[in-house]
């Protein structure tokens, strides 16, 4: 959450507010907020707008139960629009669609960036209780070894037909892979650049 300095007078008391899924990055909807709506959103933790048709504050989900949990708010460069990141509790649109733009919002890959940020923080601000920090403390050889161990374990699970165990090993491998990248000082985006470049050459 960051402090905002919205110029409500410039916008006749209402500013557009764009809501984005905090995990997937999908744009969910657009509404309008006045000062009261911003204050109530921060206080309640649930995204609240000013409804022009009802002429009152309106918390998204107050009727349907499909609330949107606030993650962060930020104003744009001109301080006359708001970007909200939220976690939706169910479909956002009154039509039953995931978004008001009739897009499917099922991807959770945006969480990877959150996990990367956590891993980086554990490296830069280690604590005695953090498993991730303990890996960094043991050095690159130990981190690389863990990736190798997890790779072997997922190969073993792939030979069986237990989805739960396979998914567990897949998560372990992916996590330790991200730790290895951080330990080496490389970004996942650099790996994506390699893949994108390979794709372009096909």
Automatic annotation (TrEMBL):
Stretches for region Phosphoribosyl-ATP pyrophosphohydrolase: 112-202
Pfam families assigned: PRA-CH (PF01502), PRA-PH (PF01503)
Protease recorded as keyword: no
Signal peptide: none
Main location as per UniProt: cytoplasm
Phosphoribosyl-AMP cyclohydrolase: annotated span: 1-111
Coiled-coil residues: none
Keyword set, alphabetical order: Amino-acid biosynthesis, ATP-binding, Cytoplasm, Histidine biosynthesis, Hydrolase, Multifunctional enzyme, Nucleotide-binding
Single GO MF descriptor: phosphoribosyl-AMP cyclohydrolase activity
Protein name: Histidine biosynthesis bifunctional protein HisIE
Organism of provenance: Algoriphagus ratkowskyi
Lineage: Bacteria, Pseudomonadati, Bacteroidota, Cytophagia, Cytophagales
Gene assigned in the entry: hisI
């Amino acid at each position: 959450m960051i402090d905002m300095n919205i110029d409500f007078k410039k916008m006749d008391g209402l500013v557009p507010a764009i809501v984005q899924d905090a995990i997937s990055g999908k744009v969910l909807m657009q509404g309008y907020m006045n000062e009261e709506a911003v204050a109530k959103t921060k206080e309640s933790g649930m995204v609240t707008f000013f409804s022009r048709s009802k002429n009152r504050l309106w918390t998204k989900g107050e009727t349907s139960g499909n609330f949107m949990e606030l993650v962060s708010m930020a104003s744009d460069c001109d301080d006359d629009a708001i970007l909200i990141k939220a976690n939706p509790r169910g479909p956002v649109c009154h039509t039953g669609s995931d978004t008001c733009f009739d897009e499917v919002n099922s991807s959770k890959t945006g969480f990877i960036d959150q996990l990367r940020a956590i891993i980086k923080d554990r490296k830069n601000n280690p604590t005695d209780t953090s498993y991730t920090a303990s890996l960094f403390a043991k050095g690159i050889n130990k981190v690389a070894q863990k990736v190798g161990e997890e790779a072997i374990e997922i190969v073993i699970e792939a030979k069986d037909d237990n989805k739960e165990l396979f998914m567990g090993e897949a998560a372990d491998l992916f996590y330790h892979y991200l730790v290895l990248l951080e330990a080496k000082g490389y970004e996942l985006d650099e790996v994506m650049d390699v893949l994108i470049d390979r794709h372009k050459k096909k």
